[in-house]
Design brief:
The structure holds three protein chains of three kinds. Chain A is built from 14 helices and no strands. Chain A has helices at residues 2-6, 10-36, 41-48, 51-84, 90-96, 99-102, 105-116, 123-128, 137-162, 165-173, 178-207, 210-216, 226-235, 239-270. In chain A, 52% of the residues are buried. The longest helix of chain B is centred in the first third of the chain and has 34 residues, at 52-85. Chain B starts with 7 loop residues before the first helix and ends with a helix. Chain C is α/β, with parallel strands linked by helices. Chain C folds into two domains: 24-119 and 245-299, Periplasmic binding protein-like II (D-Maltodextrin-Binding Protein, domain 2), CATH 3.40.190; 122-242 and 307-334, Periplasmic binding protein-like II (D-Maltodextrin-Binding Protein, domain 2, 3-Layer(aba) Sandwich), CATH 3.40.190.10. Chain C is 50% helix and 14% strand. Chain C has helices spanning 2-20, 38-56, 69-77, 90-100, 112-115, 137-140, 156-172, 177-189, 198-207, 218-226, 252-258, 261-269, 274-282, 290-295, 308-312, 315-323, 328-334, and strands at 28-34, 61-67, 84-86, 118-119, 122-127, 147-148, 213-217, 233-236, 240-242, 248-250, 286-287, 304-306. Chain C starts with a helix and ends with a helix. Classes of the chains: A mainly alpha, B mainly alpha, C alpha/beta. Chains in contact: A-B, A-C, B-C.
């Protein structure tokens, strides 16, 4: 491509990017592979398929999945009202969406436990109906809802704003109902960004630690999340076991991210934008 | 103008649903923090923040972001330039790798630095021989923070640069401007708002990081405790007012950051239109 | 861009300069300790600073690091340059000796009382008026009682709790290991949450008001009953408990490298002095000095105490049998599903 020849700084910018990426991200992550290579393939499988590890994985993936699903629905809804309706306090809502990025996860965990423990602000009312939130998988889902919401909203919001209103108006003038416009025109357009938001929230949810340990209960086999299991193994000086689990989680995150990046590159190509 | 064809009933239902979800999951935790911080009035709140350990934690937190954010800023710009101006093999892989730290469990992010620089780690023994202390000291905390906040500037700038297109740069270059001139005079002004937004997010995240920093800090009071770690310490000392006071400072910093962000956005129509084209 | 890089490099260099070696004027000691000793060492450090100044004329600064015992041990192994450690159980210091070689394996013989200047035990904290009628370990296994205790995998204190329950069951059923396991399982099935540290459990019990009984260090229980749990908690001492001896040690190689060996050794020796023992007693630790212990005798309940050495054959065996991968704790959790 002549574009590559016209612009200067290819070597410098890509070289610097790769060097910095290597130094800060890849070399540190590479130590995971180095450390878990002290395990044989069989030992590695033994660690990651032990009953307790599987239970932790199941819990982490399941709660992250449910919470990402809930956040996809409500994140879409919030993005929708932010993009389309005027209401008092809209600015504040829009600004606060990013709060979970900035708030330390431990602070979030403490605050959420204060709300949802069976003696907490909301927990005590739920408790009356026999719903226990804190120290159950439900508590983990709620904590992850807090952590994951901005990922969905920030993925979907720009797309909703961008949608050409002319297309919708044209459809309306042709007699299409509001629901039909939504189903036929709007929804298909936001699907890629919804999937991206879902995946981001999901990937973040699997690894979340700080906000979850306070509210999760940490019972082995029942409410013990995978990152806690890594911590537990470290505490017992079992570095190889800890890295084996970490590596597995890393591979899952990487695959998910790679998938959405390919997906997004494709969908933006389809929309006629520069890939 | 957008079509507003939904009936008022539908609009209000959607608003009510969305806003109550928002209130329960975003607003309530914030309220809890501030209410608990001021439970015993303003006096204990101020006292908690003037405590020497709290002050050194605030100072360290500011120092860490002062180093980590500029470095990630330079990286973000370089990466955006490489990714948007050129085509090369493995671009998707590169983007994925840049995004990766967002999804790496904070526990793992901290652990890898211990595996690398710790006394039993890969290059730890060499560092010890040369009396270089990275882990359980400030440089380790900065490294872990850089890792965690790594993608934020790049993630914001790449879409903006992509959306801006390259026509103006091409023109400048064809007319004989040097690469640096083109970058400083044309590209930078175009992406400055996106850059600023990225820096703000990156900074917010840098100040608030808990999990990864907790693993590499060593928790030495007055030395290697950042503000989020200080919150945990106070909480474990049953000093709940102090803990929430420190937490409220972080929440307050986050809020200020987000307000600045909103102001920037409303001041700059270009950024808003950029955000529209992000995807 | 160039400017940015320049600024970043200068900043990074400045940080490296200030923190790499650190131009330190006063000699410093870093005491890496576990969670419940925060208040104790706050007081003790002040006393020691004065003592050091009086005996040597030198000023000294003491830095503290607190956290879960296992986590702290791992940090020292990974390079946290502690001059002295004061941890929840000997196993954790053994691990430092074994994995890092920073101190000899015989460290425990260097100071009196197996290097434990004071001891504690495990007691129960219940709600005011003891509404659930809890008096001994049996009551913890009763259906419907909610027991709060930390996770023995991540908390040193929790391991003492676990072993105390186990020792009680062994005694009750004449060393029948199977019955003991059943009993401990029943107790842990009553736990709604296993916090990662002892302090986390206390917060759950006192601040969140969850659970009927908290299994806790004796010193923590007294501290809580005197402070945050005032008027809402009381202490119940079971018929049998475990002698918990949190040990201390100089980390030789670190102290030598810092040139602080003399101060580090004196720092630990002074814990055994009347002054040190008094401070320990004031923070509800049982002093090892007979004389000070007698003075504070009224403060602690009498209880039959077993030791890890006698009942479990030492910490290494106990760790392996009960808390390592596949140990009894894993076995009872596995069948909980």
């Amino acid at each position: 491509m002549n574009k590559n020849r016209l612009f200067p700084g290819f070597g410098l910018s890509l070289g610097y990017t790769c060097a910095y990426l290597g130094l800060i991200v890849l070399i540190p992550l590479g130590t995971l592979i180095w450390k878990s290579s002290s395990l044989s393939w069989r030992e590695y499988l033994d660690v990651v398929t032990s009953v307790r590890t599987l239970a932790a994985f199941r819990l982490s993936f399941l709660t992250a999945f449910v919470s990402a699903l809930v956040n996809t629905v409500f994140g879409f809804l919030i993005a929708w009202i932010l993009a389309r309706y005027a209401f008092p306090g809209k600015r504040i809502v829009d600004a606060l969406i990013d709060l979970p990025f900035a708030l330390p996860t431990a602070v979030a965990g403490i605050a959420l436990t204060a709300i949802y423990a069976s003696t907490g602000w909301i927990g005590q009312h739920l408790h009356k109906f026999g719903i226990e939130v804190a120290f159950t998988p439900l508590g983990i889902v709620l904590a992850l809802n807090f952590i994951g919401l901005p990922f969905v909203v920030r993925s979907v919001e720009p797309v909703l704003q961008e949608l050409e209103s002319e297309v919708e108006e044209a459809a309306a003038s042709l007699g299409a109902g509001r629901w039909e416009i939504f189903r036929r025109i709007i929804f298909p357009a936001v699907i890629p960004s919804l999937i991206a938001g879902f995946t981001l929230a999901f990937a973040r949810g699997i690894g979340e630690y700080g906000s979850v340990v306070f509210i999760s209960g940490n019972m082995p086999m029942q409410t013990e999340i995978a990152p806690l299991l890594i911590m537990t193994k470290l505490e017992q000086f079992d570095y190889a076991g800890a890295t084996a689990i970490a590596l597995t989680m890393l591979i899952v995150s990487f695959s998910l991210f790679f998938m959405i990046n390919v997906l997004q590159a494709r969908s933006s190509r389809r929309l006629g934008m520069e890939a | 103008m957008k079509t507003r064809a939904e009936s008022p009933a539908v609009v209000y239902t959607l608003l009510a649903l969305g806003l109550s979800y928002f209130a329960v999951f975003m607003l309530l935790p914030l309220v809890v923090i501030f209410v608990s911080a001021f439970k015993n009035g303003v006096g204990p709140y101020v006292a908690a923040l003037l405590n020497p350990d709290a002050r050194s934690a605030i100072w360290l937190t500011l120092l860490v972001s002062a180093v980590a954010v500029p470095l990630n800023l330079v990286f973000g710009v370089a990466a955006s330039w490489a990714i948007t101006k050129f085509d090369f093999w493995g671009k998707n892989l590169l983007i994925t790798l840049i995004d990766l730290p967002v999804s790496v469990s904070p526990v793992i992010s901290g652990m890898v630095f211990v595996l690398l620089f710790g006394a039993q780690g890969l290059i730890g023994p060499w560092l010890a021989e040369h009396h270089l202390k990275l882990i359980f000291a400030v440089p380790g905390i900065i490294l872990a923070t850089m890792f965690v906040t790594f993608p934020y500037v790049a993630r914001e700038v790449i879409p903006v640069m992509k959306a801006q297109g390259s026509d103006e740069e091409e023109a400048a270059l064809t007319l004989g401007a040097s690469g640096w001139q083109t970058f400083w005079r044309i590209t930078l002004p175009k992406i400055k708002w996106g850059l600023l937004y990225g820096v703000i997010l990156c900074n917010a995240r840098a100040m608030g990081e808990f999990g990864a920093v907790s693993v590499v800090s060593g928790h030495i009071r007055g030395r290697t405790n950042t503000l989020p770690l200080h919150v945990e310490i106070l909480y474990n000392e049953y000093d709940f007012v102090g803990a929430f006071a420190a937490a409220s400072v972080l929440a307050f910093l986050a809020l200020v950051t987000l307000v600045i962000k909103t102001v920037i956005e409303s001041r700059s129509p270009e950024l808003q239109s950029n955000r529209l084209k992000k995807h | 861009m160039k400017k940015f890089i320049l600024i970043a490099v200068v900043l990074a260099a400045a940080v490296g300069f200030f923190y790499g070696e650190g131009a330190v004027k006063k000699p410093e000691l870093l005491n890496v300790s576990y969670d419940p000793t925060r208040e104790l060492y706050q007081d003790y450090n002040e006393a020691f600073k004065k003592h050091w100044k009086e005996t040597t004329g030198e000023e000294i600064r003491i830095l503290q690091s607190h956290g879960g015992s296992g986590k702290q041990a791992r940090s020292v192994i990974d390079g946290l340059e502690a001059d002295v450690v004061s941890l929840a159980l000997a196993y954790d210091i053994d691990a430092i000796a074994e994995k890092s070689g920073l101190l000899p394996a015989t460290w425990q013989e260097r100071l009196p009382h197996q290097s434990a200047p004071f001891s504690s035990t495990i007691v129960f904290l219940v709600r005011k008026g003891n509404p659930s009628n809890i008096h001994d370990w049996d009551d913890l296994a009763r259906p419907g009682i909610r027991v709060i205790t930390p996770n023995p995998k991540t908390s040193g204190g929790a391991r003492w709790n676990y072993l105390a329950a186990w020792a009680y069951a062994l005694k009750k059923w004449n060393n029948d290991e199977v019955r003991a396991k059943e009993f401990v399982k029943a107790v842990y099935q009553n736990a709604p949450v296993l916090d990662t540290g002892a302090r986390g459990s206390t917060v759950t019990f006192v601040e969140r008001r969850i659970g009927d009984v908290l299994i806790s260090w004796e010193n923590e229980a007294y501290l809580v009953a005197a402070t945050i749990g005032k008027d809402q908690c009381e202490i119940i001492t079971p018929s049998l408990s475990i002698l918990a001896e949190p040990p201390v040690a100089v980390i030789d190689k670190n102290a030598d490298r810092h040139g602080t060996r003399a101060a580090a050794e004196e720092y630990l020796k002074y814990l055994y002095s009347p002054e040190g023992q008094k401070i320990a007693a004031r923070h509800y630790y049982r002093p090892s000095s007979r004389e000070i212990a007698d003075k504070h005798a009224g403060q602690f309940s009498r209880v039959e105490l077993i030791t890890v050495r006698d009942v479990f054959g030492g910490w290494k065996t106990a760790q392996k049998t009960h808390f390592a991968e596949g140990g009894t704790f894993d076995q009872i959790s596995r069948t909980q599903l």
